[in-house]
Design brief:
Shape: elongated
Number of strands: 6
Strand order of the largest sheet: 1-2
Helix content: 55-70%
Distance between the termini: 51 Å
Strand content: 5-15%
Structural class: mainly alpha
């Protein structure tokens, strides 16, 4: 029996029926929907709408449906293929199990508030799983940073060598980004955790359901305060996809860095066999497909965000069937983000730093030029003038085909009399790193403190 068939005398066109159906994907909501159904049945009993025997029969039947749904392949049975959605599936199975009493479960509610509560409960659980996946990626970053705690590599701006940093400092930058992403997900969870059940189709319910009791039973922080809003808005879905898109952007950026660093031209890292593929024609190739796929899948989530925003931008109040389109975008975002985080963690546990190559690159190509300018500032020269002096020294060094530390003091003194015997100690790689000793800097003691802080955060 359809949930809405009484008004109609003709048959639904089969192509439209298939177009309208959502069970093939919204069945993922079944366990969340069942939890809400149990609480709704109990609330109907408290309100005197159902007898206690009916409540027990309904809740026992819902429990049995949950057990069946957990069986591999149960939801894939051919006889369920034409089911309209997960809500009609639950009702049909309930009636099969307990008879006509199953139809009483829908008293005082609509599919509109039913799907809203199921989606919120489902997403709340998924955010908890995603938080753990982000934490594992952070753990992998920390593990790699600990392995190479003292090793430098060049830092870049505009993809041009800038100043040396510790490799651990580079990794902990992504740790910080992911920490903010975890906070963003927690914010989403806070805002979605209100209970819309009891809002009905759009105007509320005629039955005295204790909505606040239902909220407490389902672990919600409270109830929605406007029935129109409760059934028609999907801002929590959009916000989740937005937060996911930001995290995917992080992962894509990390992937890009590691792809570049693994090229023969850079050669800073080596990718393990577990995370690489080969070429079908070039035997020598070792391709970073794991990282390229992460980078590519970010675009997929970005597309879901655009779709969700566009879907809701012009909908009149209250519920519209357009909102069914949020499910596939939501589910695919969850799957894509989760799998990308898992692969990112695996990548980080299967790479090696080429210490010698990275160290050599960190001190060449005039990455210590700023240290040379700061040296003059400490000698009393204004920074802007010091910047100009060092710029001319760099030009000279380039013309000579030498690095700054390969120049002589006399050559440096051609540009300023302030240079002295302590010059080369001041611009060594060790001094360049150690000098950045403020909070957040790349000095070894600061990086070790931040690494300890990161471990404590986890």
């Amino acid at each position: 029996m359809k949930l809405w068939g009484g008004r109609f005398t003709g048959e639904t066109d089969k192509h439209f029926a298939a177009f309208n159906a959502s069970f093939s994907f919204d069945r993922r909501l079944i366990f969340a929907d069942l939890r809400a159904c149990v609480v709704h049945a109990r609330a109907l009993g408290q309100a005197g709408v159902l007898q206690q025997s009916e409540v027990e029969a309904i809740t026992d039947g819902l429990k049995k449906i949950g057990e069946m749904a957990a069986e591999p392949g149960f939801l894939d049975r051919p006889e369920y293929a034409a089911t309209e959605d997960v809500h009609s599936f639950i009702e049909s199975r309930l009636v099969e199990l307990i008879g006509q009493t199953g139809y009483k479960l829908h008293t005082g509610r609509s599919r509109n508030d039913q799907v809203a509560v199921a989606t919120r409960l489902f997403l709340r659980d998924e955010i908890a799983s995603i938080d753990e996946a982000i934490r594992d990626t952070q753990r992998a970053l920390v593990e790699l940073a600990e392995r190479y705690i003292d090793d430098p590599l060049p830092g870049y701006t505009h993809l041009q060598k800038a100043q040396p940093v510790l490799f651990a400092h580079f990794l902990l930058a992504y740790f910080q980004m992911l920490s903010r992403d975890r906070g963003r997900m927690a914010d989403v969870k806070t805002r979605l955790n209100s209970l819309p059940l009891g809002s009905g189709a759009l105007a509320g319910t005629n039955f005295p359901l204790d909505r606040e009791w239902m909220a407490a039973e389902l672990g919600s922080d409270g109830v929605t305060r406007n029935s129109l809003d409760a059934v028609s808005d999907r801002d929590y879905v959009i916000e989740f996809i937005s937060a996911s898109a930001i995290t995917m952007g992080r992962l894509s950026r990390l992937a890009e860095d590691l792809i570049i660093y693994s090229t023969q031209e850079f050669g800073f890292i080596k990718l393990g066999d577990a995370i690489s593929t080969g070429s079908s024609i070039m035997p020598q190739k070792k391709n970073p497909d794991s990282l390229e796929l992460i980078r590519g899948k970010a675009a997929r989530v970005f597309g879901h965000l655009t779709a969700a925003l566009t879907m809701t931008k012009g909908l009149p109040l209250a519920y519209n069937k357009d909102l069914q389109e949020d499910k596939e975008a939501l589910f695919d975002t969850i799957d894509t983000l989760t799998s990308s985080l898992r692969v990112a963690s695996t990548v980080l546990r299967n790479i090696e730093l080429n210490r010698e190559r990275a160290r050599e690159a960190a001190i060449t190509d005039y990455t210590n030029a700023t240290e040379l300018a700061d040296y003059l500032v400490r000698k009393g020269l204004e920074f802007r003038k010091a910047h100009e002096v060092i710029g001319r020294i760099v030009v000279f060094a380039i013309e000579q085909g030498r690095q700054l530390h390969e120049l002589t003091i006399d050559e440096c003194r051609r540009f300023s009399p302030l240079f002295d015997e302590d010059l080369f100690d001041a611009i060594s790689l060790e001094s360049s790193l150690a000098g950045k000793s403020q909070i957040g800097g790349t000095a070894p003691e600061q990086v070790k403190e931040e690494l300890a802080r990161a471990k404590a955060d986890l």
